[in-house]
Amino acid sequence: ISPLAFGQGVTVQISGNKAEISIPEISNTTIIAVDVSDSLDFPVRNIEINSKQPIDVAEFTVEIMDSGPEGVEEINGTIYQHFTIDTNLTNEDVTYIKISFGVPKSWFSSSDVDKTIVRLISTNSEGDWDVILTEIISETEDEIIFVAPLINLDADNYAIAEIPPWVATTTYTQIQTKTTTITTDTATVTSTVAGNTVVVTSVVGGSS
């Protein structure tokens, strides 16, 4: 569906390690999926929003970081990438937001990492890391694509890492409960508002 058919002037501008995404005029109870990047150097592939109410403009800034945030405990796992996600949206605006991200197969080989325990993790208000329920959705010749919800929109520090099950035991249970609710809501909303489901082909800016 053309973005113009829904008044969508969606833009994705990528410069170096930063992507800026702008999605105007989202109707209530609408699912919007925006492609971000297909470069192996930039992990975020797609952002999907399910709106609760009309949104004038949804904005995201994704920035790849060389290291984790200061004052946060060290991650007990093998890290692929640190990054930040800033958005103007709140939990009152959306039923869910989820991202898909790609990890090169070369990293799995060189780091001896198990793809089945790669997780998206985010910081919480206590300075710890929450482990988010993460799923593999596809594989290409060069990378494995994962999807995970953004469960706490107040958090902006994220990482992609292999998290051993014994590390994830406590937070995994907590996040899994939240994610189950999100998944249930997704199935319900998708089936009841299918006419409002929009897949946006974004206008991607150049990189430098």
Give a summary of the structure in a few sentences.
With 208 residues, this protein is of the alpha+beta class. Helices cover 17% and strands 45% of the residues.
Task: Walk me through the structure.
It is built from 2 helices and 14 strands; from the N terminus they run βββββββαβββββαββ. The protein is α+β, with helices and mostly antiparallel strands. The strands form 2 sheets. It has an 8-stranded mixed beta sheet. Strands 10-11-7-4-3-13 form a 6-stranded mixed beta sheet. The chain starts with 10 loop residues before the first strand and ends with a strand.
Question: Key terms for this structure?
Answer:
208 residues, globular
